[in-house]
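[INFO] parsing input record for Helicase ATP-binding domain-containing protein
[DEBUG] input buffer:
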Amino acid sequence: MKILSYQDDKNFIEAAVHMVVTRRNVEKNAEDLIAVGLIDLDSPTRALVAHAIKGDRLRLKWNRQSFSSDLFDTEKYAYRFVARPIGKLTHAIVLHKAAVDEQLEPGISRIIIVPQGGDVADLFLRRFASDFNLPYVQGWKDVIWQVCREQDYVQDLSVWTDPNVPQWQGLKAFELSDEFTEERAKEILGHLLAERRIELPSGVTATPPLSEALRPDDNGEYQVIDYLQTFAPHLATTIEDLAAPAHDLDRPIEEAIAQMQRVPFPAQAHTVQAILNGFDANKGIIASSDMGTGKSIISLAVANALANQSKHGFAVLLLVPGITIPKWVRDEIGRTLPQAKVTVIESWKDVVRYRDKRVRRGDKAAIEFILLSRDTAKLGMTKAPALIHKERSVVPNKARWHDNYTSVSMIEDVWLCPECGGIQQKHTKTAEKDAHKHDHEADQIAERKLGFKDLATGFNSYTALSIGSRKRQRTQYVFKKSITEYHCSECGANLMRDVVPEREAVSGLKHRRLQPAWFIQKYLRGWFDLTIIDELHQYKSNSGQGEAMGAIAGASRRVLGLTGTLSDGKASSLYHLLWRICPAEMKADGLDHRSLNKFVHLYGTMEQRGRYSEDDVTSAGGSTSRKVILNPPKEVPGLSPKLFVNHLADKTVFLELGDMGLPLVELDERPVFIDMDEDHKAAYQVFHNELESVMRQQYAIGNANAFAKFIPSVVNAANQPHV
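[DEBUG] output buffer:
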């Protein structure tokens, strides 16, 4: 087993290595660290991980007694890691972000790591299709992998594994060339299709194979789009036959749908049947319908139909806005399924009582509804960063090739991470630019470090009992309210902790409370046969309510989301919803909980604007040059049809108000002008003239926004004189 070590003037750290992947760096005459697996005592293991993330140079020895070693260069802030305790030891894996992240920055080559001798060609094809937005056809994997290897678009990386660790035997690692661009990938795919080395999957129509119908243009290039346009009708027929709907109006519906106190309309009944059929293949279904189409009765009909199929009772959790709970109990459940048992959860104590009295005894009614407010579901303990403040901290300096570099430095007013002990720093472009003005590393850290007032507004003292019941004075920091999530700037560890009200001052709390969503996820997993989420679109963000919804959805057997506004036009509004409702399908598409940017690039619309900089004189009396300064890309409204095909078509039911077949009253808007009475008109004219005069004076002295509030003010004065 090899040993990874780090050494400077004051520190010597080493830990056992069971796997390492490197890339030869000819310019530095060293090896670049790509991946490493460590297992040793907790402190040295985590310390080495922190040094790797900070970009420190490491050494690899054959054993602890060896004097010779190989140098490893690391790239600052270019790694992801995971650490887990194993008994008294800690196991850590450090991976370059090029092997983990879905979206890579320009100039970073993709790295593919295949453990235990997996199917390299299949993994490469999945990455090939995902990175370049191309189709994934499993039968193509061997041919595309072979061609890319022959054209040197894939290079092998150096791999060493401990022979005593069988889990890593057969590990392989590859790096894609910088020249392997999206244009080159499409060119390779087009030539392989034209040469009939690969074929598109055959359909059910008489469409000729692409290799027979495709002909090169004047430049010798093959335009696949011509094939698609020529045989579009045949391909459309193929799609209709292959993607048959889960339900249509000619199919029968479940009898239980009509066996309720209120009977749904025909359009609602068919919608219910479509949802029931969708549950055969999916855990989560979304009912997206207009306001007034009866989403409530549709969801209750789904619950009733599923309950009739169950022989062991049926429990439904309703996650709804708190203000609508009385309406659900009285007007919806009470009038539609009066025989159903209803329980309203008002606090986390009610969830615990329900678990003790019903769940532990297996007492599940034939059909019962448990109503939980979305605000109550997220209520847990207040969070605060777990940081250590030091008035002074000693920082060992690295060895340098000049005489004036001291061995240690003292940095004042710092926050330390309890995991890696690293000083919390700002890594913005401005902070890095200011730090590079200093030659000494300690001075750079002092320039970037976060002081007390950067994170906290004050502190309180409290008395705590230590070993032997001795009282000790402790300090509680009052962090800024804007800090709702904090990760260590050095090792990336999540440092948010639950505040303990028994020993810390918490507004409105004297004792600890549990989050209902967390309690359901941990102790009631599998109990709820169906979770109905009303106003699903309100959980689209990565908020406390959204995380609570995700926890509850993960603990339920089926999930039905109700919404009248599925998307606001942006792909990001659907990402978190789909990840929480159907994570398996998202993972199959190469997405995870950190793939928001990739999801937007795949299924949304990105816009990037730029501007020309001012003319810069390149030399005295010479020419001038102008460069384009690009703003960061941002998402704008626009959804790709692929989003519907890949993630919505099989799990979404749409119902419009016009589908109900009801006689609807047409809306006819006609403006009606009403004159002011004399007193109101006179007062309004005085107000209008005085305000206009003041606005003109402000505009004359340079206030360009003087008239911004003029129109709203005069309109309100005309329409609402009583205000």
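[INFO] The chain has five domains: 3-187, 211-217+224-242, 255-380+515-603, 383-396+408-498, 678-718.
[INFO] shutting down worker
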